[in-house]
Structure formats: C-alpha cells, structure tokens
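Please, why this fold?
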Amino acid sequence: MQKQLWAERRDGGGRSLRRRLYRFDADGRVDTIEEEIGIANTLAWSPISRDLFGDSLKGGLYVYDFDADSGTVRKKRTFYDAPGYGIPDGSAIDVDGCLWNARFDGGAIFKITPKHSRPNRQTTGSAPNEL
C-alpha cells in the first residue's frame, strides 16, 4: 500500500459545493479525487478494499472501489442514504467491515453492514451534537 494523505480543500464558505477531495502521495504527487463536494466527512477504508466517504452537505455516504497498491479509486456510487436522521459525520469501520456512522443533528448512530441494505443497529436519543 502506498503512503498517502487524503484531505479536503475548501474553496468557498458556508454551504458551498466548491470543495475538493485530494490525495497526496509520498512522492509529492497530488491527485483530485472528487470535485464539487460539500464537506468530506467520514473518510474510511474497509477491509474489502473499498473507500468510503460522506458528504455532509449532500447528506449521503458514498463508496469507491479502492486499489490499495496504487491508491486509486473508481466506480463511485451511493453506499447508504438515510434522510430524516441528520447528516453523516464521523465514522469508524470495525473488524467485521461494518461502518459505524454518527449522524449530526439526528441524534443517531448507525451500524451499517457491508451489504448495507439498511442499518442493523440504530441508536437514537437526545445526545448533544457537540461534546
């Protein structure tokens, strides 16, 4: 696997979709991975070579096929969408490949299995958005 840093750059403020997601390689190369995103949250890599990210302004979780040797991604598609439960924020992937996703302004945490038809665990409550 290549040594890489992935980061978002904001070209506009507020709810602008003028942000980009970049990959910085150890050799100094910089590649644009995604353009016209809102806020790239939830960057995570699954054990089955998939790269996941959430766009908080668009409200969705997306997935790419990820080539670990080259660090490249392809075939972007929607991974999971949950309108009415806030927006995707921070996430983690567990040893079984399940994505645990916190929902900002939704009071929910989802555990989404790799088959992702729907979360198999949802915790809701009156948790604050900021701790």
